[in-house]
Amino acid sequence: MDPVQDYVNTVLTDKFEVPSDDLRPGVTLTELGLDSLAVTELLVTVQEHYGTGAPDDAVTGEATPEDVVALVHQLLGGTQHVGQMGEE
């Protein structure tokens, strides 16, 4: 498994107490029980771990954990502009 995905899943289960069984493809952060403050906290936690930066609103509650992983990969790959993920 992708180490970034592993880390995001660990943060969700350990810090936000999301049951690991709930971490299935396509489930949104809101469906996992995260409110807007928790979504921002997740983003900050992941950014601090990887030493990356993105706007606080780069991820919304409609994003999935996979979207967060994709954002980290974009940031680590040097992508300069990252739009909001999880918005329709």
TrEMBL record:
Entries under Pfam families matching the protein: PP-binding
Superkingdom classification of source: Bacteria
UniProt-listed SUPFAM superfamilies: ACP-like
Residue span, Carrier domain: 2-76
Keywords: Phosphopantetheine, Phosphoprotein
Coiled-coil portions: none
InterPro entries hit by this protein: ACP-like_sf, PKS_PP-bd, PP-bd_ACP, Ppantetheine_attach_site
Keyword Ligase applies: no
UniProt name for this protein: Acyl carrier protein
Protein's organism: Streptomyces oryzae
Lineage, top ranks: Bacteria, Bacillati, Actinomycetota, Actinomycetes, Kitasatosporales
